[in-house]
Design brief:
Layout (H helix, E strand, L loop, with lengths): L1 H17 L14 E3 L8 E7 L2 E14 L2 E13 L7
Antiparallel strand pairs: 1-4, 2-3, 3-4
């Protein structure tokens, strides 16, 4: 009897999960993920100065799909460089 009840419980979970509707995606951090159209103005390259060294950062976006909806994920490539010297 317990096996039959367990079987009905598992079946109920499977049916409930398969009936869930698709959801629209919204990013709470648009600096890392965007939904819809590709962000404009990329790739962007800039230099971050840290104590004693500098890092050249190139930010771009990678296209992906989730449930048929286009999303864009930010890629950051980092490379340690010599800090630029000012001409003053």
């Amino acid at each position: 009897m317990r096996i039959i009840l367990f079987g009905f419980a598992v079946l109920g979970v499977l049916v409930g999960c398969s009936a869930t509707p698709q959801h629209n995606y919204v990013s709470t951090n648009t600096d890392l993920l965007r939904v819809g159209e590709k962000p404009k103005g990329y790739p962007v390259t800039y230099i971050e100065k840290h104590s004693g060294y500098c890092v050249q950062v190139t930010d771009s976006w990678r296209k992906d799909k989730v449930n048929g909806e286009t999303i864009w994920l930010k890629n950051s490539q980092r490379e340690t460089i010599n800090c630029p010297t000012s001409g003053t």
